């Protein structure tokens, strides 16, 4: 049986590899990173991109996008939200 802790350990980036990644990112002649940084700045910088991402993932904005696209899932999501608000679901600890 696979143990999650064993799998999680495999995600670790070794110190030597991490040094190499940082070296790659910080090279002053790295045209790829220069291009990425220019794109980030063109879109308002890191803070603005993160602000827009936080705004975009708000439920009311996600629902609005689905409604504008006439998604067939809107009705089901509205039903789920109503049931959530009515506390019709049990919690995960109660389920286990």
Explained architecture:
With 96 residues, this protein is mainly alpha-helical. 71% of the residues lie in helices and 0% in strands. It is built from 7 helices and no strands. It is flat.
β-strand percent reads under 5%
Oligomer: single chain
| Termini Cα gap | 20 Å
* Overall average pLDDT: 95
Structural class: mainly alpha
What Rg is obtained from the alpha carbons, in whole angstroms?
A: 22 Å
Shape: flat
Helix content: over 70%
- The succession of helices and strands, N to C, reads HHHHHHH
What are the low-pLDDT stretches, counting only 5+ consecutive residues below 50? none
Count of helices?
7
> Mind describing the biggest β-sheet?
none
> What is the number of strand segments?
0
Features of the shown structure:
96 residues
Layout of secondary structure:
Elements: H1 4-9, H2 15-26, H3 31-42, H4 45-56, H5 59-68, H6 74-85, H7 92-95
């Amino acid at each position: 049986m696979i143990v999650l802790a064993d799998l999680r350990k495999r995600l670790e980036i070794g110190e030597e590899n991490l040094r190499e990644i940082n070296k790659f990112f910080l090279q002053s002649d790295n045209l790829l990173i220069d291009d990425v940084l220019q794109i980030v700045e063109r879109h308002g910088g890191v803070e603005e991109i993160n602000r827009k991402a936080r705004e975009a993932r708000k439920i009311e904005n996600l629902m609005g996008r689905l409604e504008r696209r006439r998604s067939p899932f809107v009705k089901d999501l509205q039903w789920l939200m109503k049931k959530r608000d009515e506390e019709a679901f049990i919690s995960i600890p109660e389920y286990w």
